[in-house]
Amino acid sequence: MQHIKQLIKDKLGASSQPAQAIEQHLKAAADWLLQAQRGTPDDGVAHSYDIRAGKWNASYPETTGYIIPTLYDYARHYQAPQYAQAAYRMTRWECDIQMADGGVRAGTMDAEIVAPTIFNTGQALFGWASAYTETGEEGFRVALTRAADWLLAAQDEDGAWRRFASPFTTSKLNSYNTRSAFGLVRTAQALGDERYLQGAVANVDWTLGRAKENDWLPDNCLAQNPDQSALTHTLAYSIRGILEVGLAAGRDDHIERALRMARRVAAGQRRDGALPAYYTPDWRTRSNWSCVTGNSQMAINWLRLARITGETGLIEHARRANRFNMSIQDLCTDDLNVRGALKGSHPVNGGYMTYRYPNWATKFFMDGLMLEQLYDKIDNIG
């Protein structure tokens, strides 16, 4: 019944509350991520909490990987070492479950198919790079190097990743793998090895070589939709990768492309600050529900672009997206399984992570709020 109650609240607007201080929202989100870690039998982070089934889903190596830098950032900027300790345990767990070839498995720990995949390996790089930078622990350096070398070995000469697509998505050639290229950037920065930056640039060059005249990227969603539309979640992944690879490599053409794409997304922002979940190849919006993760991810992109390019008008788009997500974060419920978490969709029955609270929605929510609050202090957020 919990999922029905939440749906009714969402439909009636009763789940929206005035935003509180950013620190209050951040603390609740950070505490929920630790609750999601406690919800599993290991030190990974539960993929999600399912309010329809009333249970935590198994640990998810991909997103645990990029939650690690978020918790390290939060611990450092808010003098809260317990969150760094949790991030450390997550990193040790990622080392323990790394595959023999250096890759990171697709899906959750209870998935029937066990296979390495490009995107998940790329996201785990963020955790190992962050933890190695924070601690200097040799085991983290070794795991990071093995995973990054596996990605380079899997890359074709033109920069594309055509092999090792996720068995759990229907799209097999993914423009949003620029987010994996971004992971290689973090590896290059942590290890001081230019090979990884070169691999990242090659992937972004290949990806942008396939772009349409209006900057739309093909194959940029988790599923092959008949109208070729893409989720804001994967649109934001691709934009962030293009931006950060361009910044690291001194490629103004990459940064300009990311800026144009981000402007296109901003044009579809609703009056309440949320983004419709899908955009079509002519950059029109398609859906009356919002992918909550995409809102936070685009807030991050707009804030980064504002700082890098000086286009400060993007800051207001980011602030509005953040305020919308703050308004739907439940800070009052006694249910620790959802207090402080962000839903997959709003309303909760929307088409992405339906009736679930995925850990990455809360992770990107934290990143967006920290980047807004600490605008001049954080450059390394994942």
Name the overall outline: globular
CATH class: Mainly Alpha
Spatial arrangement of strands, main beta sheet: 2-1-7
- Poorly predicted residue ranges: none
Biggest sheet character: 3 strands, antiparallel
CATH architecture: Alpha/alpha barrel
User: What sequence of helices (H) and strands (E) makes up the elements?
Assistant: HHEEHHHHHHEHHEEHHEEH
Number of E-type strands: 7
Q: Could you estimate the helical fraction of the residues in percent?
A: 40-55%
Quote the distance from N terminus to C terminus.
Answer: 36 Å
What is the name of the CATH topology?
Glycosyltransferase
Report Rg: 19 Å
How many DSSP helices? Answer: 13
Structural class: mainly alpha
Question: How many structural domains in the coordinates?
Answer: 1
In percent, how much strand structure appears in the residues?
A: under 5%
Mean pLDDT over the residues: 95
Protein name: Squalene cyclase C-terminal domain-containing protein
InterPro entries: 6-hairpin_glycosidase_sf, Terpenoid_cyclase/PrenylTrfase
